[in-house]
DNA sequence: CTGAAAGCGCTAACAT
DNA sequence: ATGTTAGCGCTTTCAG
């Protein structure tokens, strides 16, 4: 594993070449104020001529920062990775970081070995902060990071008592307004296909569903609830189950648009007309853009806001040294696409 | 962006605490040989008691290595990210790295700014090597990395004259054997849905298709070729096009299983029976595992081998300092799933 | 505005 | 087998 990169010029060589002190070169490459314009140019020419590139290890050591943050994916179900929601989040985080000079690193943590490796990496100072997504209920990683006092921001809470900083969508409100919308259409036999219930977000959406029913004076029944794992296939299965147990169903709140698409197929296979007989609403997971399905009404999650908010919280924690946790809950929006 | 992590014990403090020299502590944390068992234990206890974590910036600076490699995704079409092939590759690379102590970092390069940022990151020594996937014909990044003498391995060539180290599948041979298989079934009107033709792999597959026809004394015609971008939707479109231009078609080589699935839908929509009227073969992109479609015959790409080979080449280059490029072409395998 | 000097925390070569 | 020492290349006071 020996590595040598000979002939790499150092800051000192640049200084000599430009006939200035090392401090001046440092100021120039860091765009620090207080350098005469002519000197600055001289240094820049020297940098060009020598092909100088700052050694980031040295910079890290002296400056005590890495200028990098990690986005960790702990999803035990690795398929999650292939979901559009995921890539949209990554894109929005990338956008939010563009003019900070901070490098975004994605890392996978699938086993204990990998968790340990990553912890050493992060605690060793190779990143200034950590972003976590799709954290399941019992995941210990957030606590380990918190204990190491590493700035950390979660996408979604692990539970109602989450303390580590997080950004979440208003899942309860979103589900409630979706179901209320169905009820306002005169539908009275509304079911729901939830996400995996060890995800707090899925629990919240279920709660929203129940609240909306309660507000309308209706009763939620366990038989009207089926669980999925956000995939189309599981949506298909869950829907088939619901139709069987609950034949006069007339509305469905689905875990995601992908799940909703699966549900649609099952409904059609069972001879139901959509949305005349049964209306389906899913949580937006950004799969619709690539789908040819008829437009569904969806609960829109504000992806851009999520990315921006996560980065903002992380930068704040980096600034002041992780002395407090902050929480942001973003409003969701019901986007009505069909008119029944 | 100020960052302080006070109270972090250093190697020196561990040495004092354990009443040994710093060198000894260094040997212990690096599992170096030649430390008496009792001292080793004493040092380990001191490490525990102080909660010592090595500073990786310092280690990098002194040891001239980062113990990390980057997997860069340059895909202009960001959707690629959501493809199963992609996540399978990531998984296999992760597996190949598990017992090397090397951290895998995924980074996205979607713009010039990001390319520049990444280059500084890599040239700055934060990674020991770079893996690139889905590199398009004109991508300058491999050359820039080569110029910086950074160990680099591509997944797939940019062209037939690629010099930078790469691991590729035998696309020509795979396509040829798939088409030959169709011809052996007595099919004589075989078409192909290619991938994006600025990808060398797609060109190779097209060549394999043509070679198989030529070997059978048949002529390839441009009208029997349609282009896709690996998605199901584009497969559907391409297939519809082919049927229109070429109604008596009886076999198709598709760019991927996902494309093939789209093609199937189009075929059925046009009233063709599969595989009786038309047989479809796709290149395995690992989407089949999550699909309920009837099993297709596929050209299997050896994912595990690809990951292992890429890591092996990279480690070799890291070892000897990128003085030579190496190329590996892995055999593909026709997996026959239906019997017609 | 600029130069000099003191570390940052570790590895590796050299003593012992 | 273990301690000592000299850097690794940069940032950041502190003088000037």
UniProtKB/TrEMBL annotation, chains A, B:
GO molecular function, one term: DNA-binding transcription factor activity
Pfam families named in the record: LacI (PF00356), Peripla_BP_3 (PF13377)
Gene3D superfamilies cross-referenced by the UniProt entry: 3.40.50.2300, lambda repressor-like DNA-binding domains
SMART domains linked: HTH_LACI
Range of residues in the leader sequence: none
Domain HTH lacI-type: start-end pairs: 9-63
Assigned keywords, A-Z: DNA-binding, Transcription, Transcription regulation
InterPro entries xref list: HTH_LacI, LacI/GalR-like_sensor, Lambda_DNA-bd_dom_sf, Peripla_BP_I
Recorded superkingdom: Bacteria
Protein name: LacI family transcriptional regulator
Native source species: Streptomyces sp. SID12501
